[in-house]
Design goal:
By secondary structure, the protein is mostly helical. The chain has a domain of 37 residues. It is 84% helix and 0% strand. It has 3 helices and no strands.
Length: 86
Amino acid sequence: MFKFIFVVLHWTFFLVVPMSTIYLAYLIIDLIYYLNRLEGQNREAARANEAGQNGDGDQEADGAAGAVGAGARDAGNPGVDDIESD
């Protein structure tokens, strides 16, 4: 009986620990991928926002193009932040 318990615990340890380590590595890689994707979306929104506020005096076009970036920040009122910040 003791040998059976020893064998079960032994193989449980050698199966569970590597699998949990692999799963932990997967979670870390997935988190890094998610954060990089989120950073890319923020970069695109900032680029669209900057393109909308080029300072040529055409506030209507600036607000419309800037609303693309503001929509990522404020989906309820796209463009309001851009107009107020001009």
